Amino acid sequence: MSAKRDYYEVLGVARDAEPGDIKRAYRKAAMKFHPDRNPGDAEAEERFKEAAEAFEVLSDGEKRQLYDRFGHEGPSRAGFSGFSGSEEIFSHFGDLFGDLFGNLGFGGRRGGPQRGADIKVQLEITLQDVVNGANRDVAVPRRETCGTCGGAGAKPGTSAETCRHCGGRGQVMHQQGFFTLQTTCPVCRGEGRLITDPCRDCSGTGTVQRETTLTVNVPPGVDDGQTLRIQGRGQAGPRGGPPGNLYVVLRLKPDSRFVRDEFDIHSKVEISMFQAALGCTMQVDTLEGTDEVQIKPGTQAGEVLIRRGQGIPVLGERGRGDHHVHVEVTIPEDLSKEEAETLRQMAEARGEHVTPPRTGLFSGFRKRRRG
Question: Considering the domain 259-365 in this protein, what is its CATH number?
Fold first, then answer.
């Protein structure tokens, strides 16, 4: 197929559709285009993948928001880039197919190699990682294919036997009146085969537990809570199947100097009333270290100095946001008599009313008390 169709169009739902409507629409599409109902039909299989991709995005709040805002490029920011084929779809949704299709006899695939489960881990990053991008190591506990049996589960030199109870189908049929019901084989538990001489290293599972350290590339511009998808680094697949995917959820370490607003950042600089009135040069923290900003004479409290293109890199695009420097003006509380008198004279010269200096009996009394 050529260009991707709109996900709402794929499922035939409105853009404000509720989750229940989306699930029902997907059930209808998946029933229609399921590979078991359309053997050898490449177009139907592509439609099946298309519907699964639309459901994966629209049924997830974060992915749906990114899609509504950025189109088909949006979900990739949450680590989703589509499905490679029907087998990955069956493995990814897991029990959902049982919920959608019940015992209709064409749910997922059993008996042969299956895709491994996905893994989700968290990775703490700093603001500098967001600005420059970084390679960070993350420890991933996962099951890997057993090196002794190659994932077969059987002792080297032996192989699994076909289950005699179900004939290798993994399912058995029961007649109840006019109805024929299909259920999981109680002997092989749906596997379709039995391992009579299991591998000693993996106890017949075909996988072993290990902790692996992986290096994750963090692209510039990511945000807290975003997810990176690393294909094929999840759990090993049962019976020698392909591994699942690794999802790395990024957690941004707070930086007391800055507040982030998408790709803009905000910080503050404190100046005195004299610096605000006369102007000055101040050192401020930036994403690249420290830099100077010019405070023009007459700057008011609350004014914002905007440093264009000095914010967060825009994820997946060129350019950067802006750095907003908020000016806070401080008022001195410890003026000397001479400083206070100078300010009073300046105010009177400008015709401004100020509190006169305290004089008289009680003023002197208070001065003596303080002394």
Answer: 2.60.260.20
Q: Which residues contact 76 (CB under 8 A, 6 or more apart)?
A: 316
**Helix boundaries (H) for the chain:** 7-11, 19-33, 42-58, 61-70, 86-93, 96-101, 127-132, 273-278, 337-349, 361-370
Question: What architecture is domain 1-110?
Answer: Orthogonal Bundle (1.10)
Dist CA 274 CA 290 (whole Å): 23
Q: How far is CA 328 from the centre of its chain?
A: 35
Instruction: Tell me if 193 sits within 8 A of 163, measured CB to CB.
Output: yes
- The domain limits of the chain are 1-110, 259-365
From the list 61, 96, 63, the residue with the least C-alpha distance to 79 is 63
pLDDT digit of tens for each residue in the chain (371 aa)? 457 889 999 999 999 999 889 988 998 888 888 876 777 788 888 898 888 888 989 988 888 888 888 888 878 766 676 776 666 666 556 545 555 554 444 444 445 566 778 888 999 999 999 999 999 999 888 888 888 888 888 899 888 888 888 888 888 887 766 666 778 888 887 778 888 889 998 888 888 888 888 899 999 999 888 888 888 888 877 666 778 888 899 999 999 999 999 899 999 999 999 999 999 999 999 999 999 999 999 999 999 999 999 999 988 778 899 999 999 999 988 888 888 888 888 888 888 888 877 665 454 444 444 54
11 backbone φψ class: left, alpha, beta (φ>0; ψ -120 to 50): alpha
Rounded distance, CA 30 to CA 97, Å? 9
